[in-house]
Amino acid sequence: MAVSADCRIFLSAAGQLHGATGLAGRNWRLVKFCNGEVMGKKLKQTQLQQSIGGVTKNVRQRVCMSLTADVAGEAKLRDLEMEKRDPRTVVAIILGGGAGTRLFPLTKRRAKPAVPIGGSYRLIDVPMSNCINSGINKVYILTQFNSASLNRHLARAYNFGNGVTFGDGYVEALAATQTPGEAGKRWFQGTADAVRQFHWLFEVQARNYDARSKEIEDVLILSGDHLYRMDYMDFVQNHRQSGADITISCLPMDDSRASDFGLMKIDNKGRVLSFSEKPKGEDLRAMQVDTTVLGLSKDEAEKKPYIASMGVYVFKKEILLNLLRWRFPTANDFGSEIIPASAREFFIKAYLFNDYWEDIGTIRSFFEANLALTEHPPRFSFYDATKPMYTSRRNLPPSKINNSKIIDSIISHGSFLTNSLIEHSVVGIRSRINSNVHLKDTVMLGADFYETDVEVASLLAEGRVPVGIEENTKIKECIIDKNARIGKNVIIANSEGVQEADRSSEGFYIRSGVTIILKNSVIQDGTVI
Q1: Alpha carbon of 120 to those of 162, 197, 269, 410: distances in Å?
Q2: What global pTM score does this model have?
Q3: What are phi and psi of 103, to 5 degrees?
Q4: What is the per-residue DSSP string for 5-42?
Q5: Domains of the chain
Q6: CA proximity to 14, closest of 296, 246, 386, 220
Q7: 1-5, 203-207, 326-330, 443-447: which is most confident
Q8: Res. 36: pLDDT tops 50
Q9: What average pLDDT does the chain have?
């Protein structure tokens, strides 16, 4: 039976912030409800009708997730989804082309998104998995520096043509190119410039327009070096419901880290009034806001008085093309140039993401984010069956652990541990750790290949070091890159507390107090670092 609610519909402040504005004062007829309640009676499913000028319109795509009655004739909507989720009209662009200087030496021979994380994954797996779990199957990855291993991983992990039906979806790596003419004389100059150089993929009038993008309405801009789990279609839905030209995913931030991010000021409906990229001093303090508008408690708001951009954006396609090609044709970066310059002219909205998120942009943040995976419970977990993290299939056997003690650690598949002690560490795939080895607060990225028992014996007989860690070695606060060969009786502890050191000829660097053993390097027996 139909239920009429032709009177006022009240919305909470949180609902307004999340895009459910613009309903009050309209003549709505509530036909069916989903998990709702009217005057104490529970009803199921939802359909809304709007009466305009005597003509009733069915709004079949609008779903009321929770409705409760306050008094007769008045209803409160707490969580309103205004349009059907349609990921076919969304394309994701993952930015993976930066030089990765802050993550050096892990980026010496690989792109930032190809850096391993969590023992078995790569950073690119995070936005790729979020896209898949959100139903978004049109994905471009823009690359520039050291992209060989990234391209190889993408081909192995996300090749949907391998007998797997993926509809009209695609995953394509777009490398920085140089073509004849003025536009091709330079490489990508920044995030915005990278997208600009491939604008023809979405522009219908372009001569080489990609016909697969004909249905695209919104463009999702993502970074390839963040760790988080997010439903991108919730983000896009919020963007569409609000009518925003641009929506920025943001999170509350405290004083200690605020100056590392783009900060914004918003009104009580979530509209961005001003934006400042990595402000310092007085400019930083000027960006303080009352974050209770985001739904934080008073105590939380006092601890986190800033609203920081995650570097995750959704643009209306036509707005993005207009900004890149005509309004700001020389702007190179979204965060420092296009977003601040657009705040007054365009409707930019903030979207609250109040969950775990980490920018894996430095050696220290990479190190700490990996070790945080071993916590109980971890702030971020790869163990979520409903929203899994995908990666390439390697067909490796389970790890073999002989007479070893493992405390608060992750041991990835295909590893061999013998008579060793592993504390608060992450051990990557195909790792080989021998007798009386002690790892503490260490991230070991693993190996790309196995050496057979015969090969190991031959190397030892020749006085050479096999891949892995040999006997009686002690390692603390260290990142061990892939295929490293660490000999017997080695001590890596940085006991003098050195913060920065470049010793590439000796096979290691120190960044922010963390020792990094280089990929394919050899640390000889008895070395002390």
Answers
A1: 22, 33, 41, 10
A2: 0.81
A3: -95, 5
A4: --S-EEE-HHHHHTT--S-TTS-EEEEE-SSEEETTEE
A5: 3-81 (no CATH), 85-242 (3.90.550.10), 400-523 (2.160.10.10)
A6: 296
A7: 443-447
A8: no
A9: 81
